[in-house]
Amino acid sequence: MTSTQIWTAIAHYGPAAVACAAAAAAVLPKPAPGTWYSVLRGVIDLLACNFGSAKNAP
Asked: Which of 33, 42, 44, 55 has its CB surrounded by the most CB atoms within 10 Å?
């Protein structure tokens, strides 16, 4: 793939990836620290653009 094709794919599929990750972050429970699930949840939060304590309601 050329760089133009990569940027086009990101522009095309990026919003859908963010929306799916945001939906998953909203539904999944908060994990215990130090588990593999917390690492996975961190990746989901990064894809969903949840920075800091967003979506972590008490």
From this structure: 44
Type of residue found at 32: A
Measured CA to CA, the distance from residue 7 to residue 43 in angstroms comes to: 21
**What pLDDT, in 10s, does the model give residues 12-46?**
999 999 999 989 988 988 889 899 999 998 899 88
| Ramachandran class of 51: left when φ > 0, alpha when ψ lies in -120 to 50, beta otherwise | beta
* Orientation angle between helical segments 36-47 and 3-27, nearest 10 degrees: 120
What SS3 class is residue 9?
helix
